[in-house]
Amino acid sequence: QIRKAGLAYDFNEYLEDVCALGTPLFDYADEVIGAVTMSVPSLRAAIISKQTTIELLKKTAENITANLRDL
Known about the structure:
Number of helices: 3
Radius of gyration: 13 Å
Structural class: alpha+beta
Strand order of the largest sheet: 1-2-3
Helix content: 25-40%
Distance between the termini: 30 Å
Number of strands: 3
Order of helices and strands: HEEEHH
């Protein structure tokens, strides 16, 4: 499900009162080599569910991936 969506969520699962969103970074062979993440206090969790935030995080990961592939 995470691979299909290109996103991973954590709502108070790892740390209490912290929510996070992550998108993968890929190398030249399309292997996952890292991630771009965003963590926020639970009180602000609505921000990581917003489509704009998700799109910006994915675009950032795509840009980093493209730069890594150029190395």
